[in-house]
Amino acid sequence: MARIFLTTLSLLLLLLAPSVAGQAYTPVSSYESQVPFLGRHEDSNTKLTGVSPEERKKFDDRTRYTIPQNAYHSPNKLIEGYYDKTCPDAEKMVATGFRQIVRLNPGAIGHIIRLQFHDCFVNGCDGSILLDFTPSGDMVEKSSMFNGLLLKGSDIIDDIKTRLEKKCPGIVSCADVLAFTTNEAMTMAGLPARRPLGGRRDSIVSLASIVEADNLPMSDWNIDQMMELFGRKGFNIEEMVVMIGAHSVGIAHCDFFMQRALNFNGTGIPDPTLGVEAIEEIRKACPDAGTALFRNPPVNFDATPTVLDNLFFKDMVEKRRSLLITDSHLLEDPRTRPIVEQMAGDPTLFPRRFAEVMIKLTSLNVLTGTEGEVRKICRSTN
């Protein structure tokens, strides 16, 4: 079975940014033509509604003993306004450049959020996912079966980095460019604007073997497997559910889920956890089971694919509607269902928590100070 990232963050957005009169996006990077998860730090100990003390202890113990020292979240190492003196326009340049890109490439927001997750969950938020080559000559993260052609957005970071290099050569790291761009992507998806944290440095190491050592989830994992991975990275159950809620935006292709409505697990009948309307919707959207993956029609995760809202969770609770089997586990498992119901019942909760959890994600195991380097080109080390 091909191992792929949980499509939980496979976000191919259809978001249209507000157009700016008289402005048009012109790529400035020579690389553009090449083939190419947050919250309050203390929340890892939060007791969650609907989670038994026994389950909570098991999860906390797993988290406590599998996270290496100094390989955790370090938001205290990152600060707002990091480039205010060395490159005062850095944040504005990232935001402006990304908005121009989104005008002509509406899927860019989804690509960037997913790219950020793939970078941070493997070896920390160090820009290692962006490398095409390293001094060791080993296969890089980008070449892993989890990534490859399924993972997009590196060219966007190349473009923005090229703009920054012209203005402030050797100052802004690729890891920060990715984090700042992700911050802008969330703003464009409807979350309140906030200044990004800066100070990350770039790794000179990128290994496909680390990606495939159970550092990104498979598309058919159960809740226990998901909990183990997210716990190992320092995220509790609630934060895991919130991060999977990135499916509030974007689409999934039929090949990833259509058998749930056509022939679930070879039974010849639909997945019994799906609602009747959801089954009919999938059957109409995915009429040709033999269509090649890359040509499959897309289906929105919810009816507001351009907004980070709670409709993804409301559809689960009220309509028993979910596309991916991994998403359906959230509603079926008693440890996660109460959290899904909380998100579905409060339209302000998910947008707030998603922004917070993303701060935690983008602070995961960062390089700072004299660690790593500041790459001149994001695809290769200096």
Characterize this entry briefly.
With 382 residues, the chain is mainly alpha-helical. The chain contains 14 helices and 4 strands.
Number of spatially distinct domains: 2
Query: Pairing-aware structural class of the strands and helices?
Result: mainly alpha
In CATH terms, what is the architecture of the largest domain? Orthogonal Bundle
Q: Termini, distance in Å?
A: 37 Å
The tally of beta strands, per DSSP, is 4
Note poorly predicted spans: 1-52, 55-72
Overall geometry comes to globular
Residues in β-strands, percent? under 5%
Helix content: 25-40%
The CATH homology group name of the largest domain: Peroxidase, domain 2
**Secondary-structure element order, N to C:** HEHHHHEHHHEHHEHHHH
| Main sheet makeup | 2 strands, antiparallel
Rg calc? 20 Å
CATH class of the largest domain: Mainly Alpha
Give me the side-by-side strand order of the main sheet.
Answer: 1-2
Binding site for Ca(2+) 1: 119, 122, 124, 126, 128, 141
Keywords: Calcium, Disulfide bond, Heme, Hydrogen peroxide, Iron, Metal-binding, Oxidoreductase, Peroxidase, Secreted, Signal
Binding site for heme b: 247
Family: Belongs to the peroxidase family. Classical plant (class III) peroxidase subfamily. Belongs to the peroxidase family. Ascorbate peroxidase subfamily.
